[in-house]
Amino acid sequence: MMEIPKSHPRYESLMRREKLVAGIEAGITSMQGLIAHGRGEAFDYLIGERTMDSALQATEVAAAILCDANKPVLSVNGNVAALASPEMVALSRLIDAPLEVNIFYRTEARVKRIKELLMRSGAKRVFGDMPDARLEGIDHARGLVSHDGIYTADVVLAPLEDGDRCEALIAMGKKVITIDLNPLSRTSRYATVSIVDDVQRALRNIIKIIEDNNLSRNADLDSILANYDNRKILKAAINEIAERLVNLEP
User: Fold this and answer.
1) CA atoms 178, 183, 187, 190: torsion sign
2) How many CB atoms are closer than 10 A to CB 116?
3) Residue among 157, 146, 173, 200 nearest 12 (CA)
């Protein structure tokens, strides 16, 4: 990876790019993932590269859902592996949830490399290299899942998700938490909880909320969800972006 001085005003953003390039060179990230990241980076500029109030509200609900879940699973694609493996593994260990590799541009070599990266980062359980189930209505490779992982999970954390798989998981009765900088994406609109934030920031916030509040099974989760409206959160995110742009000095 290129050495970038921390004094550079675009240090964090440039480091993310370097991680993705390194991921491609390591056979973890797809070339197409760079395009997806560029779109997300554009939205991150719009939100001011910070966690918005609406995103923090969604993050707090997401943390409660993950801690209350009977069988949570954390889904990992190539970009997530390159950008946030340590955070995904840390959350996995914190809530005792397995990770599952699930990628659109699937090759068995890529799946193996991503799993190896997660294991080197300290993961205990990683599914995805031996899928034995398929999500109904998903004909491409992201429909291939592990029966003991995503297929039988009650809650799936799916950062940087594809909308059709998110919709299929919801149709199966699962709660889906996504992290997506684009509040207009199909994934954001279909998910149970959509966190409009950078994946590293969001994961670190989830971990901090769980640790600071010592969260565990939550008897009030039904009331929390009853009072949570994901569409209102997405609308609030759009309003926060619009307000910032209106007040932004050129």
Assistant:
1) positive
2) 15
3) 200
DSSP one-letter code for 59: H
Instruction: Show the tokens assigned to 116.
Output: 């190896």
Q: What is the pLDDT of residues 43-75, one digit of tens each?
A: 999 999 999 999 999 999 999 999 989 999 999
Question: Rounded CA gap, 17 and 76, in Å?
Answer: 18
Is residue 194 classed exposed, middle or buried when 0-12, 13-18 and 19+ CB atoms within 10 A define those classes?
Answer: buried
Which architecture, in CATH terms, is 53-241? 3-Layer(aba) Sandwich (3.40)
Checking DSSP bridges between strand 133-134 and strand 144-145, what pairing results, if any?
Answer: antiparallel
Contact 211, 225 (CB under 8 A): no
Domain ranges of the chain: 53-241
Calculate mean pLDDT across residues 143-166: 93
Number of other CB atoms surrounding residue 216 within 10 Å: 10
pTM of the model: 0.91
Q: Nearest-CA neighbor of 206 among 157, 154, 155?
A: 157
Q: Decide: helix, strand or coil at residue 248.
A: coil
